[in-house]
Specification:
Distance between the termini: 17 Å
Radius of gyration: 23 Å
Number of strands: 0
Length: 552
């Protein structure tokens, strides 16, 4: 039974992770033309606006899917369908109040935020366009958390795909149309600046349209599912109906620590940019210059590193309701097994991604962002590649602690790490004058500190100690083999096929060599492969080529 449960949550996690990967690929595909349309200056405005937007989402909606999923799952596991539905209704009220309030603050305070806090006044247009999306995403968070609490990731997966497709189309069209509109509003030196600012606003319009399309889809799914839910609620007998006061108290006690944890965990991005822009301004660096550096950081570095991080977030989302159900009915050994399994699959993806960024950063960026000089972004990616491993692992350990009701511990750990991070950032900017590279190095320190503190807490609260060989050692060895093979293939193809074809061939080789190395080194078992989508087909193919032993 435990194996079946493991298979179920890992299958759902794999579906959500695959969707996250697809949406990130779509996101990467449309960000390339959008980045080229906006230019480095426009990307700077775009990046700054999204840091403010992300902070707003932390206060209103980032906590909702996880909190709603956790509370709904705890009730579904014991047959309390009526109480699960009341959790949904209470969470919707929370979304309306907090989402509406923060939307109004951002919308009407956009100029103050852009000019006085972020020191980049021209980002005000994009910020105003993006403000309504805060309320929309709050509603999305409740719906996604509700369905995840029922153990199904399909509505979330489909809504994310729809969201990204609409986002991609509207972002490209919006950036192109508003670029020309902005350029027509000014002349001389201001023409480029206004064009970049309005292009950034056009690109953010895609985010709003995508979120609205996803919300309409989930409303349709929820309306269809409501008949089933009513039948389930009619079968709900003998459970005490939880009062609204208790529901709201429970939501606040669950959401508040998650908000604090997510805020402290993610506010580093906003603080990084605020500290960076202010110190650069004090040091006499022109606004255009440091805005372009931030554009490279957000446009190329963040876009690339967010691909593996989205997979980690997807696995954590599927992991939470499964862990809560295991805590309700399972043993400590089963809890350890779930944490270990999710951590391992996370590292199987994160470690080769980090290795790829370190060894092939410039070729990858030149392949994707072919109209720009990628020297600085490539160096950022090489320096910060290892941070991907730390951020992915900390996402899982945060979810584990929150799932076991130790809600304050991730907050404490993130707060301590944030202080260390800011001290390191200040020293690197002021004393070492490392400019934009300071942000990347300090983010690595931040994520590494969270991993260490979370590991310490997991050991204390449930005697969990992370397995090392299969989780870290084997993926690292396989990644080294992968990197050597990729570099050799790229050098070989450069001789007769050109740089872009050489890079594409190297990436394809890297994926194949890593997967084969991982299997041969014993990093994944047959039973674990059977848990993922199309697992049986993968196992049959591996056995056909004698890459997998016939035993489990």
């Amino acid at each position: 039974m435990a194996k079946k449960k493991d298979s179920g949550f890992l299958m759902q996690g794999a579906i959500l992770a695959a969707t996250a990967l697809i949406t990130k690929i779509i996101g990467l595909a449309y960000r390339i033309p959008v980045t080229n349309i906006m230019g480095s200056e426009g990307n700077g405005y775009y990046g700054i606006v999204f840091q403010v937007y992300n902070l707003a989402l932390m206060l209103t909606s980032y906590s909702l899917p996880m909190a709603v999923s956790k509370l709904v799952s705890a009730r579904i596991s014991t047959g309390q369908y009526r109480n699960a539905y009341r959790i949904y209704k209470g969470a919707m009220t929370f979304a309306v109040l907090t989402g509406g309030f923060v939307t109004a603050v951002v919308l009407f305070g956009a100029r103050f935020i852009a000019a006085d806090i972020m020191k980049v006044e021209m980002s005000v247009y994009a910020l105003r366009v993006l403000a309504p999306c805060i309320l929309i995403v709050a509603f999305l968070g409740v719906f996604r958390g509700f369905f995840q609490g029922f153990g199904t990731m399909m509505p979330t997966a489909f809504s994310q795909t729809i969201e990204q497709i609409v986002n991609a189309i509207v972002s490209i069209v919006g950036a192109l149309v508003l670029l020309k509109f902005g350029q027509s509003m000014a002349s001389g030196a201001d023409k480029k600046t206004y064009g970049a600012a309005y292009a950034a606003a056009g690109a953010t319009l895609g985010t709003v349209a995508g979120a609205l399309a996803a919300l309409l889809f989930l409303l349709f799914v929820f309306g269809t599912y409501k008949r089933v839910l009513r039948r389930q609620m009619r079968r709900d007998r003998g459970h005490r109906r939880e009062s609204w006061s208790y529901i709201y108290k429970l939501l606040i006690l669950t959401i508040a620590p998650v908000i604090l944890s997510a805020t402290v965990y993610n506010i580093s991005n906003l603080l990084d940019q605020a500290v960076f822009t202010n110190i650069m301004a004090i040091q006499g660096v022109p606004e255009k210059e440091y805005t372009e550096l931030l554009g490279m950081f957000s446009g190329q570095y963040d876009t690339m590193t967010n691909i593996p991080l989205s997979v980690a977030s997807a696995l954590a989302a599927s992991f939470m309701p499964s862990l809560v159900a295991t805590i309700q009915t399972g043993t400590r050994k089963e809890i350890h097994g779930k944490i270990n399994l999710v951590s391992r699959f996370n590292m199987i993806i994160a470690i080769p991604c980090a290795a790829g960024f370190i060894t092939l950063a410039k070729p990858i960026l030149d392949l994707l962002y072919f109209t720009q000089d990628n020297t600085i972004p490539a160096l950022l990616l090489q320096i910060g590649g290892v941070s991907v491993v730390f951020f992915c692992l900390s996402t899982v350990t945060n979810a584990a602690l929150q799932g076991m009701d130790y809600m304050a511990k991730p907050v404490k750990n993130a707060a301590i790490s944030l202080v260390i991070h800011l001290i390191a950032l200040y020293i690197m900017l002021v004393a070492f004058k490392w400019s934009i590279y300071s942000i990347v190095v300090s983010k690595t320190i931040f994520a590494g500190a969270i991993c260490i503190l979370n590991a310490k807490d997991l050991r204390e609260v449930c005697n969990y100690v992370q397995e090392v060989k299969k989780t870290f050692v084997i993926p690292v060895i396989a990644s080294v083999i992968m990197s050597i093979a990729a570099l050799l293939v790229r050098l070989l193809f450069e001789l007769f096929a050109g740089l872009r074809i050489a890079t594409a061939a190297a990436l394809a080789t890297a994926v194949i060599v890593y997967f084969i190395s991982l299997i041969l080194l014993g990093g994944v078992t047959e039973r674990e492969l059977m848990m993922v989508p199309k697992g049986r087909s993968i196992v049959r193919l591996l056995k056909k080529f004698h890459l997998l032993p016939s035993r489990r």
